[in-house]
Design brief:
The protein is an alpha+beta fold. Helix content is about 35%, strand content about 25%. It is built from 3 helices and 4 strands; from the N terminus they run E-H-E-E-H-E-H. The protein has a 4-stranded antiparallel β-sheet with strand order 2-3-1-4, with helices on both faces. The chain is globular, with a radius of gyration of 13 Å.
């Protein structure tokens, strides 16, 4: 499984509930992290192009901005200030 961070422009005042539900429901998105408002980390067997296309199609369907960046990441090399739940998710998904 690969992990990607998807960073995107967020439209102020727009609802992202429908987008979120559909984006993480993709059958090949088996793990996801959304503790920072304008990004997701997803665990998937998809390639970066496929993740990008999924983001684009979902954002378009929900009439949201489509500007985004998808980058493969390593969860082992990390630092920052996050909630306890976010750090727990990172630790759990780094194992194995």
């Amino acid at each position: 499984m690969n992990y990607y961070i998807v960073i995107f422009d967020r439209e102020s005042g727009a609802s992202y509930k429908g987008f979120h539900a559909e984006f993480v429901r993709h059958p090949n998105v088996t793990r996801w992290f959304h503790y920072i408002q304008s990004s997701y980390i997803i665990g998937t067997d998809l390639g970066s192009d496929e993740v990008s296309e999924h983001f684009y199609a979902t954002a378009t369907k929900h009439d949201l901005p489509t500007t985004h960046l998808v980058v493969r990441v390593s969860l082992k090399d990390r630092s920052g200030r996050l909630t306890k739940d976010a750090w727990s998710w990172l630790q759990k998904n780094t194992k194995g």
